[in-house]
Amino acid sequence: MNINRLGSNCVRTIGLLVAIGLLSITAIVGQEPARPDPADKSASQKTEASPRNEKNTPKPPFTLSVKTKPILNLSLKAEKARLSEVAEEMAKRLKVQVFVGTSLKDELVSIEFSELTLEPAMQLMAPAVYIDYEIDSGSGMPKPLGIFFYGENQGEPPLTAVIPGSTQSLLIEGDTEDGVEPQNDDQKKKQEEQPLRVHFEDNNISVKAKKQPLPLILLKIGEELGIPVDIQYDTKETVDTEITKLSVEDAVRKLSPNVRLFLRADLTHAERRVLRLVLTDPTKSAQQGL
Predict the structure, then answer these.
(1) Are 98 and 123 in contact (CB under 8 A)?
(2) What is the CATH number of the domain that holds 142?
């Protein structure tokens, strides 16, 4: 009887072990392998693709930096960049009209400079470079109005390309001997006694005025230089001065703070030429913020 019980217990134990084994196999078979999250895969792809995109992104052909403090200066690094595209970006940054000559429209430039002031920087850009300025005789720095990048044999830009206004005042005089060199001492003495004398030579001007109206002096300067003068302000101001061999720009500053002077700088030949004089109304200039 004990033998029968022992056999029965063995059978139960074996059956229990078999059942446990079957349950374990079922649990293992029922488990599915973990699938990666599509979002994680996408992020992984983006992470891997990012360096490739950076490598494939082409570098810009030029970088331009414009700073206004402490003074206006430019930095440029260009490698086979179109001059016309560089000029377009300069116009935006400087807020100045920039013109490229027809012969240089497709010109490629490779150049590098750092923190150069306007004229030395522009001089490196093309065979012939011109800058037109507006100068307020009552203030400081010249204001560039237009920059021209021209070919060597293209010629000079039009004088009215960026300079506003076309009106001019006329000087009417009765002395036809003015400007004629004196032939004797009497004529020389008579000339020296004239209340207004203007002489221009070697880009320098001399002015001798004895209580002369300012508009008359400016018109006389314009006649001597062969440039238009626009009298927009009917002033009764008189000038008593003697200026000897100064640049026109410096001479005008000594005459009045209400004169606007337009000049062209030829950077290739290191020449500066006055193009126009304007006598402005100081009240209107103040209202316009000029």
Answers:
(1) no
(2) 3.55.50.30
What's this model's pTM, rounded to 2 decimal places? Answer: 0.72
Residue 18 confidence class, pLDDT cut points 50, 70, 90: very low
Give the residue-averaged pLDDT of 118-137. Answer: 96
Residue 90 tokens read as: 């300069």
Using DSSP bridges, classify how beta strands 271-279 and 229-231 pair: parallel, antiparallel or unpaired: parallel
Higher pLDDT, 26 or 173: 173
For residue 104, CA distances in Å to 86, 97, 144 come to: 12, 16, 22
The number of residues in the chain equals 290
- Per-residue confidence at 16, pLDDT binned at 50, 70, 90? very low
Instruction: State whether 204 and 110 are in the same domain.
Output: no
Quote the crossing angle between the two packed helices 214-225 and 248-255, to the nearest 10°.
170
Residue 120 resides in a domain = yes
Q: Are 240 and 248 in contact (CB under 8 A)?
A: no
CA 40 to chain centroid, in Å, comes to 49
CA terminus-to-terminus distance, the chain: 127
The helix, strand and coil proportions of the chain, stated in percent and rounded to the nearest 5, come to: 35, 30, 35
Q: What is the pLDDT of residue 264?
A: 97
Cβ atoms of 235 and 281 closer than 8 Å: no
Q: With respect to residue 253, please indicate whether it lies within any of the assigned structural domains.
A: yes
